[in-house]
Amino acid sequence: MSRNRITQLNYEFKVVYNVRLKTAREHPEDQASKELLALITKHIALFENKIPFTAGQRHSSMSHLLAMITYLGFPSDFFTFAVDDIYGLLNIRLSLPQINNHTFLVTDSGLTAALKDGTETFQHVPTTPAALRRLQAKNPVPAAETFRLLVNTVFTNAIGMPTSEHARRTIPLPEREKGFAGTCTGAYGAMEDQKSGSLHM
User: CB of 177 within 8 A of CB of 171?
Assistant: First the structure.
């Protein structure tokens, strides 16, 4: 099949698909709309288990956890942790624009003391709880990045098992790092959002 023919078929498919999609939006109860939804849902379901906070991800997590219990037995330890998203220094520093590489925000330069003393402003940064919450709400990426760093640090240093969601290898038991409870044979973490909207595990 020639390249021009493939391009033409691709264009025709897009036109037909867009028409069917528009019709389905306008008449969601029609049989054709339901057939289109079933067709799309099949493809979405392939990737849904990687989308956080979806039913597919929850089902995949439960299956994974039950498989681990079947293979390794019941877990011996359970703990939970969360980032201090309001007063976390790294979160505050990542939320503000950096000016240079040798003064505040890059260095602490007294921010910790200002937060402990309860001062309302440190340099140009308002440090009241309400102001810090607004700062986080304006840019949630630093909170998510701080949480990711915390998760990686806890799994690597406290548990002794670096995060390896995509790794398909097994480190021999004698070569594994020890965590707070000795050598870990398996670890699993479930991420949830709190009432404030921040993450905890």
Answer: no
d(CA 65, CA 171): 20
- Structure tokens given for 114: 């200002």
For the entire predicted model, the pTM comes to 0.65
Average pLDDT over residues 167-184: 78
DSSP 8-state class, residue 177: P
Say how many C-beta atoms besides its own lie within 10 A of residue 49's C-beta.
Answer: 16
Q: How far is CA 81 from CA 98, 122, 158, in A?
A: 29, 28, 12
Bridge partner list, 125? 122
Structure-block tokens of residue 166 = 């995509």
Which residues, other chains included, contact 23 with Cβ-Cβ below 8 Å and sequence gap of 6+? 30, 32, 33
| Listed range (92-96, 99-103, 110-114) with the worst mean pLDDT | 99-103
